[in-house]
Design a protein that fits this description.
The protein is mostly helical. The protein has 2 domains: 200 residues, MFS general substrate transporter like domains (Growth Hormone, Chain: A), CATH 1.20.1250; 184 residues, Growth Hormone, Chain: A. The chain contains 16 helices and no strands.
Length: 419
């Protein structure tokens, strides 16, 4: 590796500006996740699409996300973070805008539902294939420019940005849907394009980090012992969160025997509480207390075991909301711990690759919950998915307290700048 040219290293003010730009861009991506969930079902019904067809749309996009996140991570290791972030934001903008246009065209014109559905699936696939690059490259950009002691705070900021966007999405959709059901798609597409332009003009990356001048031939793999356990934690976290998000409304309908309006209100409050507690953990608790990665992983796993135990008790409205709120705090801790831990245990030239692999785990729940936990709910018992969630959460707690994470003691004692 050549001697560092410190004139090319990002200054503190440029780092802060970069974090703000990335925060806004990831907020937009987070808004897209929940905006689609809020607006698509009623529009899909008008188009004659059923729940299975809508779910398949999201599943295919999630598969694309899982497959291509690691690829974009490695690409960002070779061409730099900024180009990948821009490609992802442009894809997000195009996918969101074209999806809204296709929905509007399908409602207002007599078209083949099959042809329209194929185009809608392709539009979402563009987001999964190309849009997956933005959060991966954004996390790697932060890792490149933080010391080990700063890593958790930087990673938490990226996670909080996505969570904040997820909270804003439904409200953004509700306000604009008064004027048009399709307007939220168009405006969010514009926001995404502005995010891409802001990245182009204001995000500082004069060169690829110098560690890329001598990239080792060995590639970071799924079975790498440094990240294998963390990959399992990431996948498990995605899986148990998807159980809570996808099944809780059905659970309320069938166990608490509430009507559709009451169910929507109660589950909405629970999900809002979950999102807020995730934000608090990432924006307040982690920056203030600066916990170690090991502390975040263990605390997060414990806080996921508790709510799944609560679902096995006689259920009430208060218990349901409390369980989701507790889980939200756990998700904020364990997700940040997973991403920060993975960044810390690999070498500087592997930051993009590891961000891609960890990012790929985020879609695991969307892919597998419908065919596992949902099947258990339908054919076994309403509590069966939560027993499965408890087993997975307990397994994660076992992993983070086991010998597989002893290497954390070494990496956490170091405080070495990357770039």
């Amino acid at each position: 590796m050549k001697q560092t040219d410190y004139n090319q290293i990002t200054s503190d003010s440029e780092k802060q500006r970069g974090i703000k730009i990335l925060f806004i861009s990831i907020v937009a991506v987070g808004m897209g996740q929940t905006l689609f969930s809020a607006l698509l079902p009623p529009i899909a019904r008008n188009l004659g699409l059923n729940e299975m067809e809508v779910g398949l749309m999201f599943t295919l996009s999630a598969i694309c996300w899982t497959v291509f996140s690691p690829i974009w991570g490695r690409i960002s290791d070779n061409i730099g973070r900024k180009p990948v972030i821009m490609i992802g934001m442009l894809a997000f903008s195009f996918s969101t805008g074209s999806f809204g246009y296709l929905l509007q065209y399908g409602i207002e014109n007599a078209v083949s539902v099959i042809a329209l559905y194929i185009l809608l699936v392709l539009s979402r696939a563009i987001y999964g294939v190309f849009g997956s690059g933005t959060p991966v490259a954004a996390q790697a950009y932060i890792a490149d420019r933080t010391t080990r002691s700063e890593r958790s705070k930087g990673v938490a900021a990226i996670g909080a940005a996505f969570g904040f966007g997820a909270i804003l999405g439904p409200g953004f959709a509700a306000v604009l849907a008064v004027y048009s059901l399709f307007l939220p798609f168009y405006l969010l597409a514009i926001i995404g394009f502005l995010g891409m332009m802001s990245t182009l003009v204001f995000l500082t990356e004069r060169r690829r980090p110098e560690v890329f001048e001598n990239i080792p031939e060995t590639r970071l793999r799924l079975n790498d012992q440094r990240i294998g356990g963390l990959m399992l934690i990431g996948a498990g976290t995605s899986f148990v969160q998807a159980i809570l998000l996808q099944i809780s409304a059905f659970f309320v309908l069938d166990v608490l025997h509430l009507n559709a309006q009451e169910t929507t209100s109660l589950v909405g409050i629970g999900m809002m509480g979950m999102a807020i507690m995730t934000l608090i953990s990432q924006l307040v608790v982690i920056p203030k207390l600066d916990p170690s990665v090991r502390t975040m992983l263990i605390s997060g796993a414990v806080l996921l075991v508790i709510p799944f135990c609560m679902f096995l008790l006689p259920m009430s409205k208060i218990l349901l909301v409390a369980s989701m709120v507790i889980s939200g705090f756990g998700f904020g801790l364990i997700r940040t711990g997973t991403a920060a831990g993975a960044s810390l245990v690999v070498d500087p030239e592997e930051q993009g690759a590891v961000a891609g692999l960890i990012g790929a785990t985020a879609a695991i729940g969307i892919i597998f919950v419908p065919v596992t936990a949902m099947a258990l709910y339908s054919y076994v018992d309403p509590t069966a998915p939560y027993i499965l969630g408890l087993i997975v959460s307990a397994f994660m707690l076992y992993l983070v307290t086991g010998s597989g994470f002893r290497h954390m003691n070494r990496v956490l004692s170091q405080d070495t700048p990357i770039l």
